[in-house]
Specification:
Layout (H helix, E strand, L loop, with lengths): L5 H15 L7 H48 L3 E6 L1 H12 L5 H7 L1 H10 L1 E5 L1 H6 L20 H13 L2 E9 L5 E10 L10 E7 L1 H55 L3 H28 L6 E4 L1 H12 L7 E6 L7 E4 H18 L5 E12 L12 E10 L6 H4 L19 H11 L3 E7 L3 E9 L23 E5 L3 H13 L3 E5 L2 H11 L5 E5 L7 H11 L5 E5 L7 H7 L3 E4 L4 H16 L6
Parallel strand pairs: 7-9, 13-14, 13-15, 15-16, 16-17
Antiparallel strand pairs: 1-2, 1-5, 3-4, 4-5, 6-8, 9-10, 10-12, 11-12
Helix pairs in contact: 1-2, 4-5, 5-7, 8-9, 8-14, 10-11, 11-13, 15-16
C-alpha cells in the first residue's frame, strides 16, 4: 500500500489501532493518549505542508536569482569567464602526492608541465563582451584558454596556479591577442568560486581591456619626454644667447682693431692682406653666432616674404662642418627665384630636419646628399593629396643615397612618435612637425624611397607674386661719412668701448667714453648741453641701455640714441619704440656700418625729422 504523505500514513495507523482495541474495555487514559496522538498527527501534517511550500518558494527564488545572474553575466560591459580547472587540480594533487611542495620551482624546472596544465583548462562559458573583445563568432571556438594565450605565455598559468594554491585568487596585467592576432593589453582577475576550493571545478574570471589606456599612458610619457626636451632646448637657447653676447664682445675689438690696422697699413700690401684675412674670419664667426641664435631662439612666428635660397645657404653653413668626409654634399640652388611667405626660423627647422634625416640614413656608409631648388607649376592632376592647390611653387628636393624605406614605413613616417632611428637619435616628432609647418603655409611634402637605393623628399611652398628688393650695400656709397659732433659712448666691455671710441675719433667725432651705466648717467648730467648723440650697449650691470635711455630722456627728450647689442632676443621692442630709439646696431659692428648709422641719425635730427 502506498501513501501520499506522512499525514496519510499516521491516519491509517490510527485507524488500524482503533479497530484493534475493544472499545468496551478501553481505559480512560487510552482515550486521552489517542487524543494527543491525533493532535500530533495534525501538527505533523501542517508542518509538512508548510515545508513543501517553503521548498517550492525557495526553488522559485533560486530560478529567478540564476536568471538575474545570467542576465548580468551576458550584459556585463566587462569580459566575464567561467572556467573548469578540476583536471588541473587533480594534476596538482597527484604531484603533491608524489612529494612536490614548491610548485614555483617545479614549474621552472619542468616547463612542459605548464603546457599540460594549459591543455587541461576548460572554458565552460563566456559572455557577449568576451566574444566581441576577442573577435569570436561562436563560444565553441573558445574551448580552451590556450586558444588566446600569446606564444610563450605559459608563465601566466604558473602564476594563476600559484595564486589559487595560496589564496584562491589571481590577478595580472598582460599583453594578449585576439583570435585574429590583434594585440590587447588586459587586466585579468580570477577567483575560485565558494564551495569549489577543493576541486577548482568552477572558477570565475574577468578581463578588462586597458589597451587604449595603456596607449594613452605611453603617449603621455612620450609627451612628457618631449616637454623635457623642449625645456632643455629652451635652456640651451638661453645659454646660447649668453655665449653669443660674450662672443660678440670678443669679436668686436678683433674686427675693430683689424679695420683700424687696415687704415694704418697704408700701401703695405702684406699688412693689408693680414687685416683682410682677420676681417673675413671675424665676419664668418659673426655670421655663425647669428645662425646659432636663429636656431636657439623662441620667438613668435613672423611670416613674411623669405628667400629660400638664402635660408638654404644659412643652413648649409651650419651643416657643412658636421658632415663626415664619407658624405658628399651636392647642391643646385639657382639665384633670383621667387619668394615664399613663411617664418624664417621654421624654414630653418624644416630644412635642417630633412638634411639631418639624410645624414643619419648614410651615417655608416658612403653616400651623396643632394639639394635642389626649382620653381615648378602643379596642375590639377598633380594635386591629388595634401593641401596643395594648382599653382606655382618652389620645390626643394633633398635626396640621399642611404638605406631607403619600404612602402609600410613610408606610410607611417609622418605619424607622431613614429621613428626608424635608434632611441637616442630622435623623438619621432621631426617629420610630423615638418608636415604641420608646411601645411600651415599652404604647402606640402612628398617622399619617394626604395630599399637600398635611398630616399628623396620634395618640399613644396607656394610662391608670392612680388619682386625681391635688390640688396644695397652701404660700402658702395663712397667713403665713410665724417662729423665733428660730441658723442657719449657707453659699454661695460672696456675693449669694445675703446675700439669703438677709436673708430669714431678717426671719423672726426669727439667721444666721451664710459664703461658703466651709472658713470655714463653722471657724465651726461654734467655734459648734457654739449652731447649730440648717445651710443649705448643694451646689456649692462646696474641698469640696461633702455633704462639709461629713459633717464637721459628725462633730461633731454630730443637727444638721439643708438643701441648696440650682441643678443637681439633681449630687445624689448615695445619699450624701445616708446622711448624713441633711433637705431639698433648688432655687435660686432663694422666701422662702415657704424659711421653711416651715426651720420644718418645725426642728420635726421638736424633736418627736423622725427624718430619716435
Amino acid at each position: 500500500m502506498s501513501y501520499n504523505s506522512v499525514g496519510d500514513f499516521f491516519l491509517s495507523l490510527l485507524r488500524n489501532f482503533t479497530e484493534y482495541i475493544d472499545l468496551s474495555y478501553r481505559p480512560a487514559f487510552v482515550t486521552g493518549g489517542l487524543t494527543i496522538v491525533i493532535i500530533l498527527l495534525i501538527l505533523l501534517f501542517v508542518l509538512n505542508y508548510r515545508n513543501k511550500k517553503v521548498i517550492f518558494t525557495k526553488n522559485e527564488e533560486l530560478k529567478k536569482a540564476e536568471a538575474r545572474y545570467h542576465l548580468i553575466f551576458e550584459q556585463s560591459p566587462i569580459s566575464l569567464w567561467e572556467e573548469d580547472l578540476s583536471e588541473v587540480k587533480s594534476y596538482i594533487d597527484d604531484l603533491q602526492a608524489e612529494g612536490v611542495q614548491d610548485f614555483g620551482l617545479y614549474f621552472e624546472m619542468h616547463p612542459e608541465a605548464l603546457r599540460v596544465c594549459a591543455d587541461k583548462i576548460k572554458v565552460t562559458d563566456v559572455n557577449a563582451r568576451t566574444l566581441d573583445l576577442y573577435e569570436i563568432d561562436d563560444k565553441n571556438d573558445l574551448s580552451g584558454i590556450k586558444d588566446i594565450l600569446p606564444q610563450g605565455s605559459e608563465w601566466i598559468i604558473k602564476e594563476e596556479i600559484l595564486g589559487f594554491l595560496d589564496c584562491g585568487s589571481f590577478d595580472v596585467t598582460i599583453s594578449d591577442r585576439t583570435l585574429s592576432g590583434r594585440n590587447l593589453t588586459i587586466e585579468l582577475r580570477a577567483v575560485v568560486a565558494a564551495g569549489y576550493e577543493q576541486n577548482w571545478e568552477k572558477v570565475y574570471a574577468s578581463v578588462i581591456d586597458i589597451t587604449e589606456q595603456t596607449q594613452l599612458k605611453q603617449e603621455k610619457k612620450e609627451y612628457e619626454k618631449q616637454i623635457q626636451q623642449t625645456q632643455k632646448l629652451e635652456a640651451i637657447g638661453s645659454l646660447a644667447g649668453g655665449i653669443a653676447h660674450d662672443f660678440n664682445n670678443i669679436l668686436s675689438p678683433i674686427m675693430g682693431r683689424a679695420e683700424l690696422m687696415l687704415l694704418e697699413a697704408g700701401n703695405n700690401e702684406v699688412m693689408q692682406e693680414h687685416c683682410h684675412r682677420i676681417l673675413d674670419a671675424s665676419k664668418r664667426a659673426r655670421d655663425l653666432v647669428r645662425q646659432i641664435l636663429t636656431f636657439s631662439r623662441e620667438v613668435k612666428q613672423e611670416i613674411r616674404p623669405v628667400s629660400m635660397e638664402k635660408v638654404i645657404e644659412e643652413v648649409m653653413q651650419l651643416i657643412r662642418p658636421i658632415l663626415p668626409a664619407t658624405i658628399t654634399l651636392a647642391q643646385e640652388i639657382p639665384a633670383n627665384l621667387p619668394l615664399v611667405m613663411a617664418d624664417t626660423t621654421q624654414l630653418h627647422q624644416v630644412i635642417m630636419n630633412l638634411i639631418t634625416n639624410g645624414f643619419h640614413a648614410m651615417e655608416n656608409i658612403k653616400g651623396t646628399l643632394q639639394l635642389e631648388l626649382s620653381e615648378v607649376f602643379l596642375g590639377v592632376d598633380d594635386c591629388d593629396h595634401e593641401t596643395l592647390s594648382p599653382g606655382r611653387y618652389l620645390c626643394l628636393t633633398v635626396a640621399d643615397t642611404g638605406h631607403g624605406m619600404d612602402t609600410t614605413t613610408i606610410d607611417k613616417i609622418f605619424d607622431p612618435y613614429f621613428s626608424t632611428k635608434a632611441r637616442n637619435k630622435g623623438t619621432g616628432l621631426g617629420l610630423s612637425v615638418v608636415h604641420g609647418i608646411l601645411r600651415g603655409y599652404g604647402g606640402g611634402i612628398r617622399v619617394t624611397s626604395e630599399v637600398g637605393k635611398g630616399t628623396t623628399f620634395f618640399v613644396y611652398l607656394p610662391v608670392i607674386e612680388m619682386k625681391k628688393k635688390s640688396s644695397t650695400n652701404k660700402n658702395v656709397h663712397g667713403p665713410i661719412p665724417r662729423g665733428d659732433e660730441h658723442i657719449l659712448l657707453v659699454d661695460d666691455e672696456k675693449s669694445v668701448a675703446e675700439v669703438t671710441k677709436n673708430m669714431l675719433e678717426r671719423m672726426g667725432y669727439k667721444v666721451t667714453m664710459r664703461v658703466s651705466s651709472l658713470e655714463a648717467l653722471e657724465a651726461f648730467r654734467n655734459l648734457h648741453d654739449r652731447i649730440d648723440l648717445v651710443i649705448t650697449d643694451l646689456t649692462m650691470p646696474h641698469f640696461t641701455g633702455l633704462q639709461l635711455l629713459a633717464r637721459v630722456r628725462q633730461i633731454n627728450d630730443q637727444l638721439p640714441v643708438i643701441v648696440t647689442t650682441g643678443f637681439s632676443e633681449q630687445l624689448d621692442i615695445d619699450k624701445s619704440s616708446a622711448l624713441g630709439v633711433n637705431e639698433y646696431l648688432a655687435k660686432p659692428v663694422l666701422m662702415e656700418d657704424l659711421g653711416r648709422s651715426v651720420r644718418s641719425v645725426l642728420d635726421e635730427v638736424k633736418t627736423g625729422m622725427t624718430y619716435s
